[in-house]
Amino acid sequence: MSDLFELSVSRFIKASPEAVWKAFTEHGTEWFTPRPWTTPKVDYDLRPGGRADIVMQSPEGERHEYRGVVLEVEPSRRIVTTGAFTEGWIPQAGDMNFVRIDTFEPEGDGVRYTARARHWDEKAMQTHRDMGFEMGWGAAADQLAEVAERL
User: Fold this and answer.
1) Cα maximum dimension of the chain
2) What is the pTM for the complete model shown?
């Protein structure tokens, strides 16, 4: 553990940084939520202060809507988002707010994709871990790789 209260998953994806970026930003409905859940909506406005809204749905139809904001964008390299605010910098209360950092680093003939979740404190980080962070975000990273490798 670190003072960043960070959880992360990382995958090597055999695709260009541009293909992984395209899969991440334009094909989120195909990979974002671990199967058998689905992602009926991913709506990014890829600029600082832009929206980062996601809808996830269970096989039974239960929906979870997450509204957030983009903090930083470096095309094909990095995107930083948070649910602590919504578009327009409106603070949003919640027990599971964190900063999400997704990076796309060239590595050999592919990309090292890393997804990080930085929490405000250790309790929030542990709650996220106990919810199945590694398995859930790991499955989503595997699905991202599937999409990127076919583009």
Assistant:
1) 42
2) 0.94
What DSSP line would sit under 53-118, residue for residue? EEEEE-TT--EEEE--EEEEEETTTEEEEESSEETTTEE---TT-EEEEEEEEEETTEEEEEEEEE
Q: Tokens at residue 38, please?
A: 């689905």
What does each of the 151 residues of the chain score in pLDDT, given as a tens digit? 457 899 999 999 999 999 999 999 999 999 999 999 999 999 999 999 999 999 999 999 999 999 999 999 999 999 999 999 998 999 998 878 999 999 999 999 999 999 999 999 999 999 999 999 999 999 999 999 999 999 9
Q: Which 3 state secondary structure label does DSSP give 10?
A: strand
- Residue 110 in tokens: 């592919």
Report CA 68 to chain centroid distance, whole Å.
Answer: 11
